[in-house]
Amino acid sequence: MMSLSETLRAALEAIGSHRSRSLLTVLGILIGIAAVIVTVGLGEGAQGRVSSAISALGSNLLIVTPGSTNTGPVRGGLGSASTLTMADAQALSSHIDAPQISAVAPVVQKSEAMKANGQTWSAPVIGSTPTYLSIRDRQVTSGRFITQADVTNGSEVAVLGPTVATELFPGQYPVGQTIVIGKNLFQVIGVLNSAGSSASSNQDDQVIIPITTAQNQLVGTTNFSVSQILLQATSSSTIGAAYQEANDLLLQLHGITSPAAADFTITPETQLLSTAKNVTKTLTILLAGVAAISLLVGGIGVMNIMLVSVTERIKEIGLRKALGATPSAIMRQFLSEALVLGLVGGIIGVSLGVGLAVALPYLISNPVAISGPAVAGAVVVAAGIGLVFGVYPASRAAKLAPIDALRSE
Fold it and tell me: What's the pTM value of the predicted model, to 2 decimals?
């Protein structure tokens, strides 16, 4: 009876004697393994990027948006109505009526063309209050942020995102200079830190001005309506309580008795994160499933080469059986060959996949996470493919009768 080391050595010799065919078989497996590692890495990298982008919007965040317009022949979508006002924001700031809400920032927004220093640019202009800075978890890298005095006086001052500062004042210090937003002249008083971008918005490509200035000069609202109200809960554990307080208070302020008829929507940061993660997770599973098809093709390749090997080595099998080799020994021989093919394909595929995961971010500007469980699982799956698809050829070889094998041409 052959020992394990002898069986493995014989398997390696058999594979080495047909290098080209073995290489093609290994190629099918390694491509599938590399594809799975890269797709899973892309999915996990996307989830991490989405989480960072949403976290950059602010901590313990609740976003209140208006409802939809129902007047006229055309109905608008969520956020199209003017159902939120500065009075709502003021009421939500009450620590008596809403003790679990620590900060409130009303927001109006409009995309505007701007120019300065001979440069032109277009970016969202956000009108808000001093609390916007803390709620959005932003910092000022130079200059200062808008103050309550700026809001009260309707001052024509602006704080630039880093992208806007770079585009309008390349290689210059923007604080103290002036820019034209729409038809109005503003003085730059500060520049924000970089917060990155998501699929829906770029936190660096925006300008912040006092909300009263935005309402009077850019948006032109006469009823002091706002496009959204940002709320910050006192802690992550009180987000639910803050949500309920805001919902109840707004229903009361708007004279709405049925929550189903609410003319506003409150979206927690955790809900945004959960939704985004579910989308990227679904895409990851879909891509990994497509990549897994190539693994199936690789497994069929293993079975094919093993069947061909059995056909070519019928006399060898018959001779070994005539000399006393048992069916189990013959089966171990061919299973070992299939296992080696799977393992070699898996190891090379993992190396290729990890290499691509390291190189791709420089080419596509998207993060690719290297998942330890995915790497370990890939090697196990590759070995399993070799064994599973090698069982039939191995059992066929083990069942050959010695006399028939020796007589075959």
Answer: 0.59
